[in-house]
Amino acid sequence: MVEWTLRHGFAGTLGEVRWDRLGDPDAAPLVLLHGTPFSSFIWRDVARALAVRRSVYVFDMPGYGSSSMSGDQDLSLDALAGVFAELLAHWGLDRPDVVAHDSGGAIALGAHVDRGVPYRRLALVDAVSLPPWGSEFFTVVGENADVFRQLPGPLHRALLREYVTTASSPGLHPYVLDALTAPWLGPEGQAAFYRQLVQRRADESYIDRIRDGYAAIDLPVLVCWGADDDWVPAERGRELAALIPGADLHVVPVAGHLLPEDRPAELAAAVLGFLGDA
């Protein structure tokens, strides 16, 4: 198993955010955002590859991974975009390069379009950015969350593992599946899992609001997608690339929604080629 530990903490408005930095601290900054229901763990291989040329920042969103989880957290995309802006200020980063996956894409887009947070370049990976999104499980559980919260622990664990597995096209190594599901186990983790999932279903109005600003994005954008994504189909990626002026589209074959897990080398190469020399 590859060790992945976030060594630093930041006291944000939604609780402690765990974060880390890889590579030369004096190199050009690059920030990686994860999505739902994942954590920065999905970036471990890509982050190490990018850190050869960049100062790479990774973090777990509030309510995810090793960051704080509590029943009173506002886990809306809008609130998380605010925490992202806080983190950039804490790190002292102005116009970093940003790579964002899944709902991390909506957070990065919202921070830029809605809050005016500047980037140098933006790469969106299987990003939540246009409705509809999510698997059939996402819809069913979101509509019956109170029932699923009461599942016995072993049944929740089995259901969770099946759900996360569907995000990958070639399949996940057992230790990867263990790492991705571990934060959502136990009474607190189980409650947190369904809490954040219900919140994601309530975020469509936020997407509707920020999507009007996509046409005004004035920076280089790369849209990367897994060709076999069953959670957010590649057609959403094509639509997103068409809405952002000058955006490039890169579809990776034999990859599902978890593109950073399914094809980390191909994704890292595409991102490095897009970023160019700082």
Automatic annotation (TrEMBL):
Pfam families in alphabetical order: Abhydrolase_6
Give the molecular function GO annotations.
hydrolase activity
Alphabetical list of SUPFAM superfamilies matching this protein: alpha/beta-Hydrolases
Alphabetic keyword roster: Hydrolase
AB hydrolase-1 domain sequence ranges: 30-270
Respond yes or no to whether keyword NAD is given for this record.
no
Instruction: Show the PANTHER family listed in the entry.
Output: HYDROLASE ALPHA/BETA FOLD FAMILY, PIMELOYL-[ACYL-CARRIER PROTEIN] METHYL ESTER ESTERASE
This chain belongs to the protein called Alpha/beta hydrolase
Lineage, top ranks = Bacteria, Bacillati, Actinomycetota, Actinomycetes, Streptosporangiales
